[in-house]
Amino acid sequence: MLEQRNPQLNRNGELIHLLSIDGLPREVLIQILDTAGTFLSVNDREVKKVPLLRGKSIFNLFFENSTRTRTTFEIAAKRLSADVINLDIARSSTAKGESLLDTIANLSAMHADMFIVRHGESGAPYLVARHCAPHVHVINAGDGRHAHPTQGLLDMYTIRHFKRDFTNLTVAIVGDIVHSRVARSDIHALTTLGVAEIRGVGPKTLVPGDLREMGVRVCHDMTEGIRGADVIIMLRLQNERMSGAMLPSAGEFFKSYGLTPEKLALAQPEAIVMHPGPINRGVEIHSDVADGKQSVILPQVTFGIAVRMAVMSIIAGNSA
Ligand code: CP
């Protein structure tokens, strides 16, 4: 039987697309985090540019809304000196019924070198990668509930920056895990990087028991879930992906699972609070925590630029 090759890696095990953290070797994750570290200083220079992707055309294709991911991909590409094209999906021919693959074929005819794809359908970036010419690279910027690999990587960068070593950490992921592509990417990355304990915290409707098969300790009680944690990753309720009522109310959810200063006091004194954004104040997180001294939510966004620079420069340097 033919061995199934990971479509993100070439025959030498080098990254050519970034579609998911699942299945990526630890060495590739470390390479991305280390490379991001070298790019961080570019953001502090007067001229915030390096010529690594000069002459390359990078297309941002966001079929779903975004503030952080779309903007930081654009900033990252520009800092690498690439030409960036942001397709305005709402005004594009998608609205006239053009299929995703026809759109990709037409943009490829404009000499695209890289596609950054966010899509509501899980697997859409894989489809794009399968239909591109071998020299074209694809990065998943979030597909359905499936994966958000650059968010997972910037989360790992943030944790390493503040905590140095992964192996002694307890990481609690709190909230709407069942609909979260970020949670899935974080769990794969944290597992590969060897954290001591991952906890999935939330109500039964939002934290599925089968998370245990991924090595996650499931906690339906918030007190148990965050007690002694070193890192708390809060998630918003992803109402756009919920079918039917999964919760009594946002107010009830906040009472049981919202992160308040009182609940945060149960974690380690030096615990950091993360959130991929957008945050919903008073639903999953209290403003005093979101804006408090343990919050690293805005540094996550800044690190996202360096991490996306790293991913783009690494894949552009590898051929199929
Ligand atoms: N974290 C994240 O994906 O945010 P955006 O939806 O604003 O890109």
Key attributes of the depicted protein:
Rossmann fold; alpha/beta; five-stranded parallel β-sheet; 320 residues; four-stranded parallel β-sheet; binds phosphoric acid mono(formamide)ester
The best one-word shape is globular
Tell me the CATH architecture of the largest domain: 3-Layer(aba) Sandwich
Query: Which structural category fits the helices and strands?
Result: alpha/beta
Bound molecules: phosphoric acid mono(formamide)ester
Specify the helix fraction band.
Answer: 25-40%
Q: Specify Rg, calculated over alpha carbons.
A: 19 Å
List low-confidence stretches: none
Distance between the termini: 22 Å
CATH class of the largest domain: Alpha Beta
Question: What would the CATH topology of the largest domain be?
Answer: Rossmann fold
- Major sheet size, sense and barrel closure: 5 strands, parallel
Strand line-up of the largest beta sheet: 7-6-5-8-9
